[in-house]
């Protein structure tokens, strides 16, 4: 990261306009990718032309390939670009503050970023389990009282009411409070992904040259598009209202722009040569770099490689992402 005055003056105005444009690009891209499949699937489900199993299986294949490509992009960008910047800038910051130590502080910050997201996600995932434990007794009482009422009604009516009992039982199960737990789980999923996205956007907002900014935008936009499509499909298959679905989609869409704005503000209002800015931005970039590694090694690769279907295509997609970004970094350096 070059924080010299000359570099800042050459690139700053262009970078300002570029980052502002990327904020709106993320908003439009992610919101569109979430809502278009959501409304299409809801429409087909309403008119009963939607074959859920066949459609989702085909879409899942495409998502898996895109996920592996995004993993290759994230892994290569993190290893060959961001991690090197973090290590170089951390050494410079330690010299500025006259910290004499052989401890690998830059690598330590990156690992802290991995653990930070791990703790946040696991902590958030405890919430739906607690909600389920609190609701299970209530749900059991409602379920058994519903069955008792149906049995008593059947005894006082003729034999034709047997089918009515089955239909009412199915309807009561469809309206079972479990659907509300699914809604809670989906909210938590979106919050967890939004936290990821803020750190991703933060890394982009902290960049001080056009090459790194555009490279990160490509990686993040691919990953966000895959996640957005997945969330759109999940929203379409729940009983959540249109209004709440749009709210969830908006929350997910603004997360990366929030991170971009935070990083941009840090660079804008601080003195470019300030040691505190150098140390602060390096730590934040290290945490963001750890987020990228977490996405690759804890989320995408374990999930995709544990599924034996289309493994060769997934490996090729991962390799293409790696080769593409490696060539771009080699040419731009």
Strand-residue fraction? under 5%
Give the termini separation.
13 Å
Molecular shape: globular
The secondary-structure element order is: HHHHHHHHH
Structure class: mainly alpha
| Integer average pLDDT | 73
Give the helix proportion (percent range): over 70%
Number of beta-strand segments: 0
The helix count comes to: 9
Domain module tally: 1
Largest sheet: none
Low-confidence stretches: 1-11, 137-157, 160-182
Radius of gyration: 25 Å
Protein name: Slc39a-3
Transmembrane segments: 20-41, 62-83, 103-120, 188-208, 214-233, 245-266, 278-300, 312-332
Membrane topology: Multi-pass membrane protein
Main location: membrane
Offer a quick outline of the entry:
With 333 residues, the protein is mainly α. It contains 9 helices and no strands.
